[in-house]
## 1
Amino acid sequence: MREILFIAWHDAKHQLRQGSTLVWVFLMPPIFFYFIGTMTSGFSSGMSAQDTPLLIIAESPGFLQEQIDVRLRDNDFAPEWVEELLVAEGVAAPPRTLTLSPNLTDKIVVKEQVTAVFETKASALTREFELIRVRRGMYTALADIIVANVGSDAALTAADMIVLNEKPRNFQLDVSPAGKRKKIPSGFEQAIPGILVMFTILVVLTSGGSMLVNERKQGLLRRLASAPFSRFEVISGNWGGRLLIASVQMSAALLVGTYVFKMAWGPDFGMVLVVLAAWAG
């Protein structure tokens, strides 16, 4: 056992003296953590728990502005109302806008047709999701207007909308999940474990394989075979050196992932270490 540890220690120490090994062990994993984690977190931003900003362009919307605002907020939007879209030079246009007809309330009261145009720069999947939410909010506001004015010959007023909102709801829908929802990892939680395993295999195979080729070409293996070590001790010592390199890399990556990228390893951190140790071996 002493001979195995001797070979493993000196083999790992020799590899850590190589500049390329140091770069791939300590420098490249955090860089890949950052870039891949940032990219994958961007893919899920459209489904985040935060309200989606929405710029509503409406000239003199009237008292129905409040009702539309409430229904859009119920669908996880954060509306901001302006009468005219003004974009300064060098400033990016808003990512999503909802343009309503001028004098919206006045036209609806006299039963004139109005329009609502929704524009977004989101990707295809997120665009469809946003469109569904906008339609649901606008149709709900339309239903409120119809109910508030049903059975009355008088014109719709702001007081009618207040009375409608204060009425108790006769029907309530209680929605609850049928089971425990599993959160799909994204961002750094998705990137760090996979990159950690990838770089461990990469370093162990490349640095270990290149050293094995050099040792064979330079006759070091033949010289080591003539040393007072058994074949088992030589093989185990070389394997132990690779395992030690992988352990150093994993320890550094675990520290960086935990304290720099705030990685949450979950309740089974012990099994995570077992899996990583299996990959390292």
Note: The chain has ten helices and four strands.
## 2
Amino acid sequence: MPNTRLARPILLLSSLLLSSNALAQQPLDLLDASYTDILRWCQAHPDYKVGGAATGECLSDQSARLEHEVLVQQQDLLTDHCPAIKLRAAIAQQQWQTYRNSQCGLFQAMLDNTAMYNNAAACRLQMTLDYRDQQAFLAHYQPDTPVPCDASP
């Protein structure tokens, strides 16, 4: 007679591992994902399983992907706006990048080890998620028609 007390936990563990790998294989919708969604995806993804810094590398990769997607959305949002508005948006984006890099760079400046690398990557991702949300807020509340451009010199 097989030992069913041992078989059930093994079966449960196997199914959890399989579902975790299946989750990691699915593409991640970064425009709707939370920090926790992205962290779990990174921890389960087979490409990021090796070494302590692998999760930080995944978070950095997802942060870069998310930033690109947000910039594409921002360009679409500003298509019909004046050059002056586009310039202000570009300046704001550059200032945000500088702030994010300075703020999150503090983690590694304090102590350069794997934990602080992962913390810096988490910081960059969290700030990029915040930037995504601010851009969505701007898109949601923009006027239906762009404000006329100021033609004065």
Note: The chain has one domain: 29-140.
